[in-house]
Protein backbone atom coordinates (compact mmCIF):
# COMPACT_ATOMS: atom_id res chain seq x y z
CA UNK A 1 0.00 0.00 0.00
CA UNK A 2 1.34 3.45 -0.93
CA UNK A 3 2.11 5.76 1.97
CA UNK A 4 0.19 9.02 2.39
CA UNK A 5 2.62 11.79 1.48
CA UNK A 6 0.16 14.68 1.21
CA UNK A 7 1.18 16.01 4.63
CA UNK A 8 4.74 16.30 5.92
CA UNK A 9 6.01 13.86 8.49
CA UNK A 10 7.16 15.34 11.81
CA UNK A 11 10.44 14.08 13.27
CA UNK A 12 11.19 15.04 16.87
CA UNK A 13 14.78 15.32 18.12
CA UNK A 14 14.77 15.24 21.94
CA UNK A 15 16.67 17.41 24.38
CA UNK A 16 19.61 16.28 26.50
CA UNK A 17 19.14 13.61 29.19
CA UNK A 18 15.75 12.76 27.65
CA UNK A 19 14.00 9.51 26.87
CA UNK A 20 11.97 9.28 23.67
CA UNK A 21 9.02 8.48 25.94
CA UNK A 22 9.07 12.07 27.22
CA UNK A 23 7.56 12.99 23.84
CA UNK A 24 5.01 10.20 23.42
CA UNK A 25 2.02 12.26 24.58
CA UNK A 26 3.04 14.96 22.10
CA UNK A 27 3.37 12.46 19.25
CA UNK A 28 -0.10 11.12 20.10
CA UNK A 29 -1.55 14.65 19.99
CA UNK A 30 0.10 15.37 16.63
CA UNK A 31 -1.21 12.09 15.22
CA UNK A 32 -4.71 13.04 16.41
CA UNK A 33 -4.30 16.24 14.38
CA UNK A 34 -3.49 14.19 11.31
CA UNK A 35 0.32 14.15 11.24
CA UNK A 36 2.51 11.08 11.14
CA UNK A 37 5.10 11.71 13.85
CA UNK A 38 8.28 9.95 14.93
CA UNK A 39 10.62 10.38 17.87
CA UNK A 40 13.81 8.47 18.61
CA UNK A 41 16.20 8.64 21.54
CA UNK A 42 19.48 10.46 21.02
CA UNK A 43 22.43 8.08 20.65
CA UNK A 44 24.21 10.32 23.17
CA UNK A 45 21.67 9.26 25.81
CA UNK A 46 21.59 5.62 24.78
CA UNK A 47 25.03 4.41 25.88
CA UNK A 48 26.80 3.90 29.18
CA UNK A 49 30.10 2.42 30.37
CA UNK A 50 31.93 0.49 29.06
CA UNK A 51 30.78 1.85 25.68
CA UNK A 52 32.43 4.96 24.23
CA UNK A 53 30.49 8.22 24.60
CA UNK A 54 28.69 9.50 21.50
CA UNK A 55 29.70 12.67 19.66
CA UNK A 56 27.47 15.42 18.24
CA UNK A 57 28.30 14.16 14.76
CA UNK A 58 27.11 10.65 15.65
CA UNK A 59 23.84 12.11 16.93
CA UNK A 60 23.46 14.06 13.69
CA UNK A 61 24.31 11.11 11.45
CA UNK A 62 21.72 8.97 13.24
CA UNK A 63 18.91 11.46 12.67
CA UNK A 64 20.06 12.24 9.13
CA UNK A 65 19.65 8.55 8.40
CA UNK A 66 16.05 8.63 9.61
CA UNK A 67 15.34 11.71 7.49
CA UNK A 68 16.79 10.02 4.42
CA UNK A 69 14.61 6.95 4.92
CA UNK A 70 11.48 9.10 5.23
CA UNK A 71 12.45 11.24 2.25
CA UNK A 72 13.20 8.20 0.09
CA UNK A 73 9.59 7.13 0.72
CA UNK A 74 8.49 10.45 -0.78
CA UNK A 75 7.84 12.33 2.47
CA UNK A 76 8.46 15.97 3.15
CA UNK A 77 9.86 16.22 6.69
CA UNK A 78 9.43 18.81 9.43
CA UNK A 79 12.14 18.55 12.09
CA UNK A 80 11.02 19.61 15.59
CA UNK A 81 14.04 20.09 17.88
CA UNK A 82 13.97 20.54 21.64
CA UNK A 83 16.77 22.17 23.67
CA UNK A 84 20.10 20.39 22.89
CA UNK A 85 18.26 18.80 19.97
CA UNK A 86 18.51 22.14 18.17
CA UNK A 87 22.22 21.65 17.62
CA UNK A 88 21.70 18.07 16.47
CA UNK A 89 18.97 19.08 14.04
CA UNK A 90 20.92 21.98 12.57
CA UNK A 91 23.76 19.58 11.82
CA UNK A 92 21.60 16.63 10.74
CA UNK A 93 19.82 18.36 7.86
CA UNK A 94 22.96 18.76 5.74
CA UNK A 95 22.27 17.37 2.24
CA UNK A 96 18.69 16.35 3.10
CA UNK A 97 16.81 19.60 2.51
CA UNK A 98 14.04 19.17 -0.06
CA UNK A 99 15.55 21.72 -2.42
CA UNK A 100 18.93 19.96 -2.34
CA UNK A 101 17.37 16.56 -2.90
CA UNK A 102 15.28 17.83 -5.81
CA UNK A 103 18.42 19.15 -7.52
CA UNK A 104 19.88 15.66 -7.15
CA UNK A 105 16.79 14.10 -8.70
CA UNK A 106 15.52 12.72 -5.40
CA UNK A 107 12.09 12.98 -3.81
CA UNK A 108 11.16 14.27 -0.36
CA UNK A 109 13.34 16.09 2.13
CA UNK A 110 13.28 18.56 4.98
CA UNK A 111 10.93 21.49 4.38
CA UNK A 112 10.83 23.14 7.82
CA UNK A 113 12.86 23.38 11.02
CA UNK A 114 11.06 24.15 14.28
CA UNK A 115 13.25 25.06 17.26
CA UNK A 116 11.46 24.47 20.57
CA UNK A 117 13.29 26.60 23.17
CA UNK A 118 16.29 25.06 21.44
CA UNK A 119 19.97 25.85 21.04
CA UNK A 120 20.88 27.63 17.80
CA UNK A 121 24.66 27.66 17.60
CA UNK A 122 27.05 29.28 15.18
CA UNK A 123 29.45 27.25 13.05
CA UNK A 124 32.51 26.37 15.13
CA UNK A 125 30.73 26.70 18.47
CA UNK A 126 29.50 23.99 20.82
CA UNK A 127 27.25 23.66 23.83
CA UNK A 128 30.39 23.61 25.96
CA UNK A 129 31.95 26.73 24.39
CA UNK A 130 28.59 28.48 24.62
CA UNK A 131 27.71 27.66 28.22
CA UNK A 132 30.64 25.78 29.77
CA UNK A 133 30.25 22.53 31.68
CA UNK A 134 27.01 22.04 33.63
CA UNK A 135 27.23 23.21 37.27
CA UNK A 136 28.75 20.40 39.40
CA UNK A 137 25.88 20.69 41.88
CA UNK A 138 23.49 19.69 39.10
CA UNK A 139 25.48 17.36 36.88
CA UNK A 140 28.41 15.05 37.61
CA UNK A 141 30.82 14.26 34.77
CA UNK A 142 32.61 10.93 35.03
CA UNK A 143 36.19 10.27 33.96
CA UNK A 144 34.81 8.13 31.15
CA UNK A 145 32.86 11.03 29.66
CA UNK A 146 29.30 10.57 30.86
CA UNK A 147 27.16 13.24 32.51
CA UNK A 148 24.75 12.20 35.25
CA UNK A 149 22.16 14.40 36.97
CA UNK A 150 22.85 14.63 40.71
CA UNK A 151 20.90 17.76 41.68
CA UNK A 152 17.56 16.06 41.18
CA UNK A 153 15.27 18.59 42.88
CA UNK A 154 17.06 21.61 41.43
CA UNK A 155 16.88 20.20 37.91
CA UNK A 156 13.22 19.32 38.45
CA UNK A 157 12.44 22.93 39.38
CA UNK A 158 14.43 24.38 36.47
CA UNK A 159 13.55 21.97 33.68
CA UNK A 160 9.97 21.14 34.65
CA UNK A 161 8.84 24.27 36.45
CA UNK A 162 5.21 23.94 35.34
CA UNK A 163 4.93 20.21 36.01
CA UNK A 164 3.73 19.01 39.42
CA UNK A 165 6.85 18.90 41.57
CA UNK A 166 6.58 15.25 42.65
CA UNK A 167 6.08 14.23 39.03
CA UNK A 168 8.98 16.42 37.92
CA UNK A 169 11.26 14.77 40.50
CA UNK A 170 10.19 11.32 39.30
CA UNK A 171 10.99 12.30 35.71
CA UNK A 172 14.47 13.57 36.61
CA UNK A 173 15.27 10.45 38.65
CA UNK A 174 14.72 8.30 35.57
CA UNK A 175 16.58 10.51 33.10
CA UNK A 176 19.49 8.75 31.38
CA UNK A 177 23.13 9.71 31.36
CA UNK A 178 24.30 11.95 28.53
CA UNK A 179 27.60 11.96 26.66
CA UNK A 180 29.75 14.97 27.57
CA UNK A 181 31.54 14.52 24.23
CA UNK A 182 28.35 15.56 22.45
CA UNK A 183 28.32 18.88 24.32
CA UNK A 184 31.87 19.57 23.15
CA UNK A 185 31.04 18.88 19.49
CA UNK A 186 31.29 21.91 17.22
CA UNK A 187 28.57 22.78 14.74
CA UNK A 188 29.72 22.50 11.11
CA UNK A 189 26.44 23.11 9.27
CA UNK A 190 23.92 25.87 10.09
CA UNK A 191 20.79 24.20 8.77
CA UNK A 192 18.69 27.19 9.82
CA UNK A 193 20.48 29.27 7.18
CA UNK A 194 19.25 27.10 4.32
CA UNK A 195 15.90 25.65 5.42
CA UNK A 196 12.94 27.78 6.61
CA UNK A 197 13.02 27.93 10.41
CA UNK A 198 10.49 28.80 13.09
CA UNK A 199 11.10 29.24 16.80
CA UNK A 200 8.78 28.34 19.68
CA UNK A 201 9.64 30.72 22.52
CA UNK A 202 8.82 29.41 26.02
CA UNK A 203 8.52 32.54 28.11
CA UNK A 204 8.66 30.83 31.52
CA UNK A 205 11.68 28.66 30.78
CA UNK A 206 14.19 28.63 33.67
CA UNK A 207 16.65 26.34 31.89
CA UNK A 208 17.03 27.96 28.46
CA UNK A 209 16.07 31.37 29.77
CA UNK A 210 14.27 33.95 27.61
CA UNK A 211 17.43 36.01 27.00
CA UNK A 212 19.17 32.91 25.62
CA UNK A 213 16.19 32.12 23.41
CA UNK A 214 16.23 35.69 22.05
CA UNK A 215 19.93 35.31 21.28
CA UNK A 216 19.21 32.13 19.34
CA UNK A 217 16.40 33.82 17.41
CA UNK A 218 18.73 36.70 16.57
CA UNK A 219 21.25 34.22 15.18
CA UNK A 220 18.71 32.82 12.76
CA UNK A 221 17.83 36.36 11.71
CA UNK A 222 21.49 37.28 11.22
CA UNK A 223 22.16 34.15 9.17
CA UNK A 224 19.16 34.55 6.90
CA UNK A 225 18.71 38.32 6.80
CA UNK A 226 15.00 37.76 7.48
CA UNK A 227 12.64 38.14 10.40
CA UNK A 228 12.15 34.87 12.24
CA UNK A 229 8.75 33.19 12.53
CA UNK A 230 8.39 33.16 16.34
CA UNK A 231 5.54 31.70 18.37
CA UNK A 232 5.22 32.09 22.14
CA UNK A 233 4.02 29.60 24.73
CA UNK A 234 3.45 30.55 28.37
CA UNK A 235 5.21 27.42 29.58
CA UNK A 236 8.43 26.24 31.12
CA UNK A 237 11.19 24.32 29.37
CA UNK A 238 9.20 21.17 28.59
CA UNK A 239 5.77 21.90 27.09
CA UNK A 240 5.94 18.40 25.61
CA UNK A 241 5.12 17.28 29.17
CA UNK A 242 3.29 20.26 30.68
CA UNK A 243 1.19 21.46 27.72
CA UNK A 244 1.27 18.88 24.90
CA UNK A 245 -2.12 19.94 23.50
CA UNK A 246 -1.07 23.57 23.13
CA UNK A 247 2.32 22.61 21.75
CA UNK A 248 0.80 20.29 19.16
CA UNK A 249 -1.60 23.01 18.03
CA UNK A 250 1.27 25.48 17.61
CA UNK A 251 3.39 22.98 15.68
CA UNK A 252 0.53 22.20 13.29
CA UNK A 253 -0.23 25.92 12.99
CA UNK A 254 3.37 26.58 11.99
CA UNK A 255 3.22 23.85 9.36
CA UNK A 256 -0.09 25.07 7.91
CA UNK A 257 0.69 28.78 8.32
CA UNK A 258 -2.30 29.32 10.61
CA UNK A 259 -0.57 29.71 13.99
CA UNK A 260 -0.73 33.09 15.68
CA UNK A 261 2.50 34.58 17.02
UniProtKB/TrEMBL annotation:
Q: Which Pfam families is this protein grouped with?
A: Abhydrolase_6
Q: Where is the signal peptide?
A: none
Supply the InterPro entries for this chain: AB_hydrolase_1 (IPR000073), AB_hydrolase_fold (IPR029058), Sec-Metab_Biosynth_Hydrolase (IPR052897)
The record places domain AB hydrolase-1 at 10-250
Protein name, please? AB hydrolase-1 domain-containing protein
Task: Please name the source species.
Answer: Exophiala bonariae
